[in-house]
Amino acid sequence: MDNPIEARIAELGLALPDAPAPAANYVPFVRSGDTLYVSGQISSGAEGLILGKLGEDMAVEAGAAAAQACALSLLAQVRAACEGDLGRLKRVVKLTGFVNSTPNFTDQPKVINGASDLMVEVLGEAGRHARSAVSAASLPLGVAVEIEGIFEIA
Q1: Which of 41, 106, 150, 153 has the fewest Cβ atoms surrounding its Cβ within 10 A?
Q2: pLDDT, tens only, 20-73
Q3: Which CATH class is domain 4-19+27-153?
Q4: C-alpha to C-alpha distance for 152 and 140, rounded to whole angstroms
């Protein structure tokens, strides 16, 4: 039987991907006590990388969907860090979101809401978190969004 978190994700019509492997010289997560630091997860879905620049060739809604994909990858990394037991996740502490956007684009918070909303929909109060949403002139491989996270785990 799936744990309640994975069951809730399935109820939303979503699925966790496999935890993405690091693309360079870093580890996907580091645990220190009950704090888990998850490296930035780039926007990727079943069709591959989610590319685009907000304010140029991507709408806010598409950016929010890219951020949601990042959130699913973050949860996949938490599951991997917890040896497959996502039930050990106690809360989301902080998300830092980077949005590939033009200099005049100012809706970074609306884009990163795609990740924040998912965390709250899936985890309830444990999904509420501190957050930063910032613009980036470009992101790795031309992706639209990258998000890193800090989590409390058992």
Answers
A1: 106
A2: 999 899 999 999 999 999 999 999 999 999 999 999 999 999 999 999 999 999
A3: alpha beta
A4: 27
- At residue 128, does pLDDT exceed 80? yes
Measured in residues, the chain has a length of 154
Q: Which of 69, 53, 90, 68 is nearest to 20 (CA)?
A: 69
- Whether the predicted model's global pTM rises above the 0.90 cut: yes
